[in-house]
Amino acid sequence: MKVKVLSRSVEDATRQRSNDIHKIQRNLDPTLHPFEKAREYTRALNATKVERMFAKPFVGALSGHVDGVYCMAKHPKKLDWLVSGGGDGDLRLWSLSEQKSIWSTVGHKAMVTGVSSFLEGNRFLSCSNDRTVKIWDPTDNSTSLPTATYTGKNAFSGISHHRSDNMFATSGSAIDIWDHDRAEPVQTLNWGVDTINTVKFNQTETSIIASTGSDRTIILYDLRTSQPITKLILAMRTNAIAWNPMEAFNFMAANEDHNIYAFDMRKMDKAQNVLKDHVSAVMSVDYSPTGEEIVTGGYDRTIRLYNARQGHSRDIYHTNRMQRVFSVIYTMDNKYVLSGSDDGNVRLWKARASEKMGVRDYRERAHLEYAEKLKEKFAHVPEIRRINRHRNVPKAIKTATQRKSIMINSRKVKEENVRKHTKKESLPDRIPERKKAIVGVKK
Amino acid sequence: MAPGRAGPGKGGRGGAGGSNNNNNNNRKPQANNHSRKARGAAAAASASANKSNKSVKSLANVYSVEDEDESKSSRRRKQYLDEVDNYEYNVDEIEDEDDEEIDSDEAFDEEDEEKYENFQFYGSKDAGKPKKSKKTDKGKGKKVDSEDEDMMDQSESEEEEESEEEEGAEYMDISEMLDQPEEEEVALPKKVKLAGFNDSESEDDFKFGDDDDEEEEDDEEDEDDEEEDEAEDMDEDEEEGGKDLTSFIDSLETSTKKRKQDDGSASTTKKARKNLRERTEAYDESEYNLQAHRSSAAHSATGVSNKKKLDILDLVSTIQNEAGFSSLKKGVQALESGPNKGKSVETLAAPLPKIVQDRLNRQAAYDESKKEVSKWLPIVQKNRQADHLAFPLNAPAPVAPSNAALASKFDASTEMEKEVEKVLIEGGMQEKKLMEFEELALNKMSTEEVEKRRAELRQMRDLMFRDELRAKRVSKIKSKLYRKIKKKERERNALTEEEMRELDPEQAHEERLFAEQQRAQERMTLKHKNTGKWAKDQLKHGNFDPESRQAITEQIERGDRLRRKIQGVDSDEEQSGGESEYSDLDDDDVEGIKNRAFDELAAVEDQLSKAEDAAKEAKVGKGVFAMKFMQDAAKRNKLQAQAQAEEFRKEMMDEEEEAAKSSEDEWQSSKKGKKNKKNVAEPGTVIGAGGRMVFGSGVEVPESKDASGKAKAVKMNSGGQIQKVALSGGHSTKVEGPVNVKVAGMKSGLSATAPEGDSDDGSANPWLKTEKHGQGKIARKNDKGMTKDSSKVDKLQAKIKKQKAEAESDDEVQIDTSSFLTLSKDNQKERGLHKDESASKAPSTKASSQQAKNVKGGAKEEVSVANDDDDSGDEAEPVMVHAKTTAALSQRDLVARAFANDNVVSEFEREKMETAEAEKPKDIDMTLPGWGSWGGKGAKKKKNVVVKKAQPGDGVEISKRKDAKLAHVIINEKRDKKAAAYAVNKIPHPFTSWAQYEDSLRAPVGKEWNTNATFQQMTLPRITTKLGKIIDPLTAPFK
C-alpha cells in the first residue's frame, strides 16, 4: 500500500542568504479567498481599534523653566536640539534624545519673546522685551555671555532668521532687518503704526517676510524691493504665522478667533482653508517639514494636529498639567511635535499618536501600511469613522466645544431667518466661510 | 495713465483724494501753488537749465488767459483736450517755447465758484469739509514746497513769455492740429483708475470714462472750470509721476500758447505782472546781472516785459567771436537750435507724495513678488498631485553599478572564482589578452583594411541594432489580426511536408515528430474540447463579451483542426462516437449500426439470462422480488422480451435494405438507446435523459404488454419540432410544484387509474400530444417515454423503426387542445378521483380510453407513474387531460389558461397590506392579566392599563410608506440595524457619486487577492519619511 504524505524539502523553505525574500506560497485563486470585502472591512475595523488602543502620543516633558515657555526654536540641521525661552528671561537648550537641558542661562532681564536658530554653527538668537537681541553660542563653555548683543529702541516681540544669509528680522514697533555684523538695523520696514507681534521669514522664498500686527493685520514684506508688499486685515488678531516649507506662497495664520487660516500670498482676499476645532485663541502654529500637516497650540490648553488641506483636526493632545500652549514646533524629521506652555514645561509628543517608533522590518512595515490603507479605504463607514474620531478630551474642552457649536448653529439659524424674511432684491450675498474673517486687503 | 482723463471731473466729492485747491479767500496763491506744485521738483531740478523754467512759468500762465472770445476758445478747448491726448504721444514735437501760462485767477472765477462749491480740490484747506487726515497732511506739505517755486517763477515768467512769442512763427498752425486724426485719442485708455487711491471710498472717484469728455464738450460755459480741472489733473499727475505727466503738461501748455497766438492779444492780460515793469533798481555789475541782450531786445520791441532772463547766449556770446572753443561752440549750437530744441530740457516729474509713492511702490513690489513666488507653482502642483512623495525630496538616488564597473573591480576571492580565472587565463580569454590580440591583428593590416573592417563592423552593428529595434517594435504589437496574418504568412511560406521530405528527410522526420508531440500535448490538455471549467462557465453563464466568445470559438476551431489532423494522419478506421457525429452517415454506417444492433441483441439476451439468475438469487432473499407474483411477472416479462427479440431480429433481416436510410437525429437517438441499454445494466443509475433514479433493485424485468405497447409508441417518435414543444412543456412543469402531486399520487391510489407509460407522457405534456398518421402514439423526443420498464429491445427497435419512419414519411406534428379539460383541484386528495372522472369525461377520445384501459403494473410501477406524474404534476393549476381532437391553440393561450385561476395580484395586495399593517406604529398593551391584581371572587378589574404608546420613530404610517403610491412594489421599511452599521449615509467628500465610492471599495487590497507587486504598490503610503532624516525646506532649482 502506498501512503501519500506531504513532503516539503527544507531547502525550498529556507533562505540561502539573509537578503533573500521569504518565499510564501500563495494561491491567488479567488474562490479560495471569498468575502474579500467583509474580511477587509473587519481588518480595517480592527486596525482602527488597535490604532486607538496604541495611541499614546506623550513622550515626555522637559522641565527646567521656572516661568512659562513662550518661544521655542528648532535647529535646521540638528534634530536633537531645541532652544526655548522663558518668561523670566531664561534661555535653555535641550537635548531631545536625552530629554534634558544641556545648556541654560538667564539671558535677558525681561521675558524672552523670541528665539531663532540658524544654519551656521551652533549659535542661536534671542530677543526680549528688554530691548535687546542676543546671539548665543552654547558650545562655547568659556563664557556665559552672549556672542553679540544688539540693542533696539523698543521692546522686541519676535525674531526670525534668514534661511541662509547672516541676516535676521525682528519685530516690535516696526520690522527691523539686522545684519550680524552691524549694530544698527540695516533696514526698517514699516506700514502703519501699531505694534507688530511676530515676524517670520519664508524659508523657501527667502526674501519674503510675514508679520502680524496687533491691529489685526498680516503684513508681507519683500526684501528684494525692501518694502512691505501687502497688508491683510482680519476680523481678529493673528497670533502666529507659519510658512509652508514646501509651498513657497502658502502660509498659516493662527488667529484669535479660534481658527487657523491658510493663505496664499498671491491671493490674499480669501483664505485658502479655514481650520477649525480649537475652542479658544490659537497661540502658535507650525508646519510639518513635509508641508502636509500643521500643529497648533491653543489658549484652550490643547495641541491640535491638522492635515493642512482639511478643515478639522485629526488629533488633539492634552495632559492634565499642561497649561496654555504658547509655542509649538514640528521636528525636522516629521516624527515629533514639541509644545511649550505656560506651566514651564516643554513637552515632546509623537506626531502620529499610535506610531511605533524605531526601525521596523519589512513585514511589519508592510502590515502597517496595509492597515493604514484599509483604514483609509473604509474610513467613511460609520463604525470605523466613529472609532477613529473618538477622543477623550478634558471636560472643559468638551463643554466648550458643545457650547460653541450651539452658538454657531444659532447664529446660522438666525442668519437664515433673516434671509427668509428679507426681500429678494435686498438679500445680501452669502459670504463664503473663507472670506468671513477677512476685513480687507490694503495695498 | 492718461493725464488728460485723470481730472476729477465729476468726482468732486473725493476731490482728487484731497483738497488742495481754491476757495474764495486764498484763491490766487492757491492757484499758483498748485499749478507750480505740479512742477515742484522739475523747477528745482532745472535750476541749471534756464529753459525748463520757462515751462514752469508757462504753466502758471495757463490760467491768465483772458477768455474774450468765449465761444471760440471753448470750441478750441474741446480740441485741446483732444490735442492733449494727441500730444501725449508726441512729446518730442512740442517745443519748449510753446509753453504758456494761464492765470488761475481768471481760470476759476466766481461763477465757477458756485458751480464747484461742493468740490473739494486737491490740497484745499477748507476745514469745514470732511477730509482724510493723510490727504490734508499731504496738501500742507505741498504748499510749503510750492511757495518757494512761486517766488522764483514770478520773477521770471514775463520775460519768458515774450521770448516764446517771438518764435511763434515756427509753430504748427492750430488748424493743422485740429486736423489731427482722432485715432490717437482712441489709443488712450478709456477708463483710468489711479492706482494710488484704493481706499474703497475714493475708488469710484478716480474712474474716468468717456462721460467726462462728453460732458466737457456739452457745456461750453464750463471751460474755465475745466481749466481748473486740468490744473487739478496735474495735481493728480504728480501722483502718477513719470514722463506722462511732463508730456501732458507740456502739451497743455503748448495748446494754451497756441490759443493765445490766435487771439493775438497775449500782452493785454498780464495785470499781475505789470507791477514788475515798474521796477527801476539798477543792477550791480556782476555775473548775476548780465544783460540778456537778445531777449531784452525782443521784449522791449513788444513791450511786454522788462524782465531779463539769462539765456545761454548771454553767457557764451563772447566766445563766439573768439578763436578756439570750437567744441564748446558746437555744443552751444546744439543746445540752442535744431528741431528738437525742447528735448534736451525736458523737465523731471515732481516726486509724488510719499504715501502715494509708497503705495505705488508696494503694488509694483507685490506684483513682482507674486511673479517671483509663482515660479514655484509647477513644483507645488507636481508635489500635490504626486501619488507618492519620499522625503527628503532631494535625496540623491542610489547609483546602480554598471557591469563594466563591477567587472573592473572584480577580484577573484573564492576558490571557484580563482579556478575559473585560472582557466580563463590558460585559455587566453582574459580581457586584456583579447584586447591585445585585436590590436595585434589590427597592426598587421593596412590602414585601408582596418578602415574597411571598421566600416563593416559598424555596419553590422548598425544593422543589428536596427533589427533589434524592429523586433522589439514588432513584438509589442498586440493586434490579433496582425498575428493571425503573420501566422498565415508563416504557414504559407513554410515548406510542405513532402517538400521537406525531399529536401531533408531527417529534418522532416524531426518536424513530424515535433508536430506529433504537439498534437499529443494538445489532446492531453483537452483545451479544445470546451470541457474546461472556464469554457463551461462561459457557456453556462452566457458570457457574451466578444473576447471570451472568440476564445471559445477558437477552442472549438482548434478541436476541429485537431480532429481533422488526426484523421488525416492516422487513417485508422476506429473513430470515436463523438467524431462520427461530424461525419456524414452513409450506407456503411447503417450497416455498422445494424451489426451493432445484433451484437447488442446478443448482449441483451445474455443479460436476460443473467437477470434470470439474479431473480433466482433474489428468491433467496426477502422483499418484493421474492414474492411469487413478482416472480411470475418477471418470468412473463422475460418471455416477452425474448419473443420481442426474436421478432425484432426477423424484422431486421427483412428490412435490411430499407434501413440504409437514416438521419442524424435518428443516429443520435440510437446513441441514446445505446446509452440506455448500458444504463439498464447498472442498478440504481440514471436512465435516459429524464434523469430519474431507478428505485428498487437493479431492474431486471419489465417486459410486459405495455412495454411492447411502449415500444410501438416509441416507434412513432419524431424529431426536432417536438423536442421544442417538449422543452416548453418541461418549463411549465417546472413552475408547478411537483412534490405534492407525488404524494397525492401515492395516496389516492392513482396507480389504479392513471395510465402508465405512454399515458405518462400525456400527462407530462398534456397539450403536446402529437398525432401521427392516425396512430395515437406518444411521441417524445427525449427518452422520457422509455421508462425503466421498457426494455432495451424496445429501445433498439424504436430506434431502427424510427429511422424507417423518418425515411418513409414527413412528420406532421399537431397539438391537440380541444381535448384538454380543466380540472379545479382544490383538494388534492380528490385529485385521483378527478382524474378518473376527467378521463371518463373525455369519451370522444379513443386514446384516453385506451390509456385508461392500459393501466397495469405493480406497486413499483405505481411509483414510477407517480414520478412521471411529477412532470405534469401541479397543485393549484388545472390539470390538462388530453383528448384527441385536431384544433390547435397557441402556446401563449395555453399558458394563459394554465394560470387562469391563479390570483397572484390579489395575493400580492394582501401581502402588501399585511406588511404595511405590521410595520405601522402600534400601541402595545403592556398589562399582564392577573399580575399585580387580586384574583378570586369579587376581584375588580385592574383600572390602570399600561399601554406603551407608539413612539414617533417607531414604524411607518401606511400613508407615508415609500411604496404607498407604487402598486406593484413592496418596499421594506424596516431599518436593519446590522446593515446600518455598514451603510454610509452620504457620499463621502472626494467622491461625487455612489458608484464612484462603491468602486473605490470594490477592489480588495490584501495579499490574498493581489500579487506582491500590486500589493506593495497599493499600500504604499502617499508620504514616506525616513527616521532621523532632516527634511529641509524646498530649495529652488531655478535660482
Automatic annotation (TrEMBL), chain A:
<feature type="repeat" description="WD">
    <location>
        <begin position="275"/>
        <end position="316"/>
    </location>
</feature>
<dbReference type="InterPro" id="IPR007287">
    <property type="entry name" value="Sof1"/>
</dbReference>
<dbReference type="InterPro" id="IPR020472">
    <property type="entry name" value="WD40_PAC1"/>
</dbReference>
<dbReference type="InterPro" id="IPR051733">
    <property type="entry name" value="WD_repeat_DCAF13/WDSOF1"/>
</dbReference>
<dbReference type="InterPro" id="IPR015943">
    <property type="entry name" value="WD40/YVTN_repeat-like_dom_sf"/>
</dbReference>
<keyword id="KW-0687">Ribonucleoprotein</keyword>
<keyword id="KW-0539">Nucleus</keyword>
<dbReference type="GO" id="GO:0032040">
    <property type="term" value="C:small-subunit processome"/>
</dbReference>
<feature type="repeat" description="WD">
    <location>
        <begin position="62"/>
        <end position="104"/>
    </location>
</feature>
<feature type="repeat" description="WD">
    <location>
        <begin position="318"/>
        <end position="359"/>
    </location>
</feature>
<dbReference type="Pfam" id="PF04158">
    <property type="entry name" value="Sof1"/>
</dbReference>
<keyword id="KW-0677">Repeat</keyword>
<dbReference type="InterPro" id="IPR036322">
    <property type="entry name" value="WD40_repeat_dom_sf"/>
</dbReference>
<feature type="repeat" description="WD">
    <location>
        <begin position="105"/>
        <end position="137"/>
    </location>
</feature>
<keyword id="KW-0853">WD repeat</keyword>
<dbReference type="InterPro" id="IPR001680">
    <property type="entry name" value="WD40_rpt"/>
</dbReference>
<protein>
    <submittedName>
        <fullName>rRNA-processing protein sof1</fullName>
    </submittedName>
</protein>
<dbReference type="Pfam" id="PF00400">
    <property type="entry name" value="WD40"/>
</dbReference>
<feature type="domain" description="Sof1-like protein">
    <location>
        <begin position="351"/>
        <end position="438"/>
    </location>
</feature>
<dbReference type="GO" id="GO:0000462">
    <property type="term" value="P:maturation of SSU-rRNA from tricistronic rRNA transcript (SSU-rRNA, 5.8S rRNA, LSU-rRNA)"/>
</dbReference>
<comment type="similarity">
    <text>Belongs to the WD repeat DCAF13/WDSOF1 family.</text>
</comment>
Automatic annotation (TrEMBL), chain B:
<feature type="compositionally biased region" description="Basic and acidic residues">
    <location>
        <begin position="534"/>
        <end position="548"/>
    </location>
</feature>
<feature type="compositionally biased region" description="Basic and acidic residues">
    <location>
        <begin position="502"/>
        <end position="525"/>
    </location>
</feature>
<feature type="compositionally biased region" description="Acidic residues">
    <location>
        <begin position="570"/>
        <end position="590"/>
    </location>
</feature>
<feature type="compositionally biased region" description="Acidic residues">
    <location>
        <begin position="146"/>
        <end position="170"/>
    </location>
</feature>
<dbReference type="GO" id="GO:0006364">
    <property type="term" value="P:rRNA processing"/>
</dbReference>
<feature type="compositionally biased region" description="Basic and acidic residues">
    <location>
        <begin position="136"/>
        <end position="145"/>
    </location>
</feature>
<keyword id="KW-0539">Nucleus</keyword>
<feature type="compositionally biased region" description="Acidic residues">
    <location>
        <begin position="200"/>
        <end position="241"/>
    </location>
</feature>
<feature type="region of interest" description="Disordered">
    <location>
        <begin position="746"/>
        <end position="877"/>
    </location>
</feature>
<feature type="compositionally biased region" description="Acidic residues">
    <location>
        <begin position="82"/>
        <end position="115"/>
    </location>
</feature>
<feature type="compositionally biased region" description="Gly residues">
    <location>
        <begin position="1"/>
        <end position="18"/>
    </location>
</feature>
<dbReference type="Pfam" id="PF04615">
    <property type="entry name" value="Utp14"/>
</dbReference>
<feature type="compositionally biased region" description="Polar residues">
    <location>
        <begin position="815"/>
        <end position="825"/>
    </location>
</feature>
<feature type="region of interest" description="Disordered">
    <location>
        <begin position="640"/>
        <end position="717"/>
    </location>
</feature>
<feature type="region of interest" description="Disordered">
    <location>
        <begin position="911"/>
        <end position="936"/>
    </location>
</feature>
<feature type="compositionally biased region" description="Low complexity">
    <location>
        <begin position="840"/>
        <end position="853"/>
    </location>
</feature>
<dbReference type="GO" id="GO:0032040">
    <property type="term" value="C:small-subunit processome"/>
</dbReference>
<feature type="compositionally biased region" description="Basic and acidic residues">
    <location>
        <begin position="769"/>
        <end position="807"/>
    </location>
</feature>
<protein>
    <recommendedName>
        <fullName>U3 small nucleolar RNA-associated protein 14</fullName>
    </recommendedName>
</protein>
<feature type="compositionally biased region" description="Acidic residues">
    <location>
        <begin position="867"/>
        <end position="877"/>
    </location>
</feature>
<keyword id="KW-0597">Phosphoprotein</keyword>
<feature type="compositionally biased region" description="Low complexity">
    <location>
        <begin position="40"/>
        <end position="61"/>
    </location>
</feature>
